[in-house]
Amino acid sequence: MFLGESTTMLSYPVNLEPDTNNTYLVTFPDIPEALSVGDDEDEALLNALDALETAIEAYFDEKREVPMPSKAKQGQPVVTLPALVVSKVLLQNEMIRQGVRKSELARRLNVHMPQVDRLLDPRHSSKIEAIEAAFRTLGKRLKISIA
To answer: Domain HicB-like antitoxin of toxin-antitoxin system spans what residues (predicted)?
Structure first.
């Protein structure tokens, strides 16, 4: 799918446990910074996506590689990132691997820094063409498939 990653999406396994307050606690083994709760399992899992995206923002801010999800155990719930967020996670990770800073990416793309900041903001609705261009400057190609 993307950059030779072995998975077509980023689906993070979660631990869903009843809490002492008659709520459910969600934790992510791969992203320990992401925690969520909900009044029932459905609400906890819905809130978990927001918690996961918030934790990913912190990884971006700290210029740390976002860990890839481990394989879920049979019957274990997962939270799947939206495709646009997946592409941004993979872009950020590739930049870190190659040692490319945001200023260098801006120079290569011939754009201003705020445009790169938005490109690397998981919550910003970037255009896929801009992400494709960023991958090209890193010598990579974005491939999308439907399963």
So the answer is: 12-87
Q: Express each pLDDT in 49-73 by its tens digit.
A: 999 999 999 999 999 999 999 999 9
Query: What are the tokens at 30?
Result: 């791969």
SS3 24: strand
Helical H runs in the chain? 41-61, 83-98, 102-109, 113-119, 128-137
Beta bridge partners of 90: none
Q: Report the SS3 class of residue 102.
A: helix
Report residue 96: phi and psi, to 5°.
-65, -45
The conformational region for residue 93 under phi > 0 = left, psi -120 to 50 = alpha, else beta, is alpha
In a 3-state reduction of DSSP, which class is residue 104? helix
> Global pTM?
0.89
Segment 124-144, tens digit of pLDDT:
999 999 999 999 999 999 888
